[in-house]
Specification:
The complex is a heterodimer of chains A (about 400) and B (about 140). With about 400 residues, chain A is α/β, with parallel strands linked by helices. Chain A folds into 2 domains: about 130 residues, Peroxisomal Thiolase, Chain A, domain 1 (3-Layer(aba) Sandwich), CATH 3.40.47; about 230 residues, Peroxisomal Thiolase, Chain A, domain 1 (3-Layer(aba) Sandwich), CATH 3.40.47.10. Chain A contains 14 helices and 11 strands. Chain A has a 9-stranded mixed sheet, sandwiched between helices. In chain A, helix 4 packs across helix 14 and helix 8 packs across helix 11. Chain B folds into 2 domains: about 45 residues, no CATH class; about 80 residues, OB fold (Dihydrolipoamide Acetyltransferase, E2P), CATH 2.40.50. Chain B has a 5-stranded mixed β-barrel. Chain B is about 5% helix and about 35% strand. By secondary structure, chain B is mainly β. The chains are: A alpha/beta (about 400), B mainly beta (about 140). Chains A and B meet through helix 5, helix 6, helix 7 and strand 5 of A and strand 4, strand 5 and strand 6 of B. Strand 5 of chain A pairs antiparallel with strand 4 of chain B, so a sheet runs across the interface.
Chain lengths: ~400, ~140
């Protein structure tokens, strides 16, 4: 048995998610209600009007739907007025930020039961328009202005990584193939069809060396959790999942200030250190993880930044199958951002939704056996915001 | 160094105004001597606002690069184009577009010089673009 020194900070007593994808005719408040219904169905003992004290909601941009101010929008649509419904924004880590605030509020004793979620409705815009809006998470004045796109930012990291450590376009393609295979087993994923290595390798370039299948899609979706004080979790469920560690860190948003020597995302390294310390665990204690594969290179580097392998050994993890569902540390069983989809403001919570399903034996065809501890890693922009959360199954 | 009466503080707009004059300028903290690039009105190292402008030589080496195939509507006509991060001799780095023949001629470690390209625009932001050319 593990020595689980980590004191529970908060308990997840229910989790829900909308179906992810191109959800025509549905706006984010409606996707939120789809996730809310899922949460309520899984937690019949929860009386939202009486029990829920506040809502923390991640959303990146009002620009996608021309609809801002999600807090009160949700308060009214979900019948939760006059509760405090608070939006958080940290680009693609907006939902991770919501979880951070929710955990801190519970740990501080400020609230005992909260909803924490994330939403984004992205497909009203064309792919070009949506990509441009996402790129506002990077530096406008020095990077975008001088020609960088969002895929371009991660491509810079990919070029440096491949040059330094000898990883190949095929290694990256294998990550896409793995995640598309996992997504095929997730009935809520955007893409539920596997791809072949040939398809991935022959796809057109978006930002060399990254090709189409190295990039996550533009997706609509919402995800939601119910968090409580650990002490009262069993009033709501027999199978609580405890958040036992969390880290949050920032680094520069400038492409020119990334660590291209070691080729890592410093904020993710720092956030994971904080989370491991709080949980009293080491990377080897993690049974599985959902990591932020906005681009395949980000997943590869996450293996190293989170300590699952030594620096420069990331490609071995995919070549040797270590990160496959049957491997030693399965990564992105949900399909990840590449297959499940990446409604940017929802992703941090959607990752925890998958961890919750896996730890409570509700993951269907993709259920892992005997897992006790799961980790999520949610990054914003070019890794400039990073949130790492460690969960363990209630004993 | 290049003090002029109309210089308006250590701002992004002033940085690009210098670029427009063909000069790559950074801020230097007079207290802790940190070279601050991009410039900003407060030293991120010691929080002093006692700064001075210093001109950089504009010579450096490619640290990493990419070739952009899909870009914004404004830049799509230029695709495929290369963007690089260049480490300057003075130790700070910059992002810019590469202008050295074919994209596949670029290599990590290539020596480049900084120059500036006028961008035709009628509304904000009106400023040049940073470009890298093969060092002479």
């Amino acid at each position: 048995m593990l020595d689980l020194a980590g004191k529970p900070l908060a308990a997840i007593v229910s989790a829900g998610s909308s179906r992810f994808g191109r959800r025509e005719g549905l706006y984010w408040r409606e996707l939120f209600l789809e996730a809310f219904k899922d949460v309520l169905d899984r937690c019949p003992n929860l009386n939202p009007k009486k029990d829920v004290k506040a809502v923390f909601l991640g959303m990146m941009s009002e620009g996608f739907e021309k609809q801002g101010h999600p807090g009160p929008t949700i308060a009214s649509w979900a019948g939760l007025m006059p509760k405090a419904c608070i939006r958080t924004e940290s680009a693609c880590a907006s939902a991770g930020a919501a979880v951070r605030f929710a955990v801190a509020a519970i740990a501080a004793g400020f609230y005992d039961i909260v909803l924490v979620g994330g939403v984004e409705k992205m497909t009203n815009l064309s792919t070009a328009e949506a990509t441009e809006l996402i790129s506002t998470a990077s530096d406008f004045h020095f990077d975008q202005w001088n020609g960088l796109t969002f895929p371009g930012l991660f491509a810079l990291t990919a070029t440096a990584y491949m040059h330094k450590y000898g990883a190949t376009e095929e290694d990256l393609a294998r990550i896409a193939v793995k995640n598309r295979g996992n997504g095929a087993l997730n009935p809520k994923a955007h893409f539920q069809k596997p791809i072949t290595l040939e398809e991935a390798l022959n796809a057109r370039f978006i930002a060399w060396p990254l090709k189409l299948y190295d990039c996550c899609p533009i997706t609509d979706g919402a995800s939601l959790l119910v968090l409580t004080k650990p002490r009262i979790a069993r009033k709501f469920t027999d199978t609580p999942v405890y958040i036992i560690g969390q880290g949050y860190a920032c680094e520069s948003i400038l492409a020119s200030e990334k660590d291209y020597d070691a080729v890592r995302f410093v904020a993710n390294v720092e956030a994971s250190k904080e989370a491991y310390k709080m949980a009293g665990l080491k990377p080897r204690n993690i049974d599985f993880a959902e990591v932020h594969d906005c681009f395949t290179i980000a997943e590869l580097i996450a293996y190293e930044d989170l300590g699952f392998c030594e620096k420069g050994e990331g490609a071995k993890m995919i070549r040797e199958g270590t990160v496959e569902r049957e491997g030693k540390i399965p990564i992105n069983t949900s399909g990840g951002l590449i297959s499940r989809g990446h409604p940017v403001g929802a992703t941090g919570v959607c990752q925890l939704h998958e961890v919750y399903l896996q730890l409570t034996g509700q993951a269907g065809n993709r259920q892992l056996k005997g897992v006790k501890v799961g980790l999520t890693s949610n990054i914003g922009g070019i890794g400039a915001s990073a949130v790492v959360t460690i969960c363990r199954r209630g004993g | 160094m290049a003090e002029k009466p109309q210089v308006q503080g250590f701002t992004i707009d002033q940085f690009y105004r210098f670029c427009d004059e063909g000069k790559l300028m950074a801020a230097r903290c007079r207290k802790c001597r940190k070279l601050i690039m991009p410039p900003r009105p407060l030293c991120p190292n010691c929080y002093s606002d006692n700064l001075e402008w210093t001109q950089l030589r504009g010579e450096g080496k490619v640290v990493t690069y990419t070739i952009i195939h899909i870009s914004t509507s404004e830049l799509q006509p230029l695709t495929p184009y290369a963007v690089a991060v260049v480490k300057l001799e003075e130790g700070v780095s910059l992002t810019g577009m590469m202008r050295i023949g074919k994209p596949d001629e670029i290599k990590i470690g290539s020596k480049v010089s900084v120059s500036f390209e006028k961008v035709e625009r009628k509304k904000w932001p009106i400023r040049p673009r940073i470009v890298f050319k093969a060092a002479q």
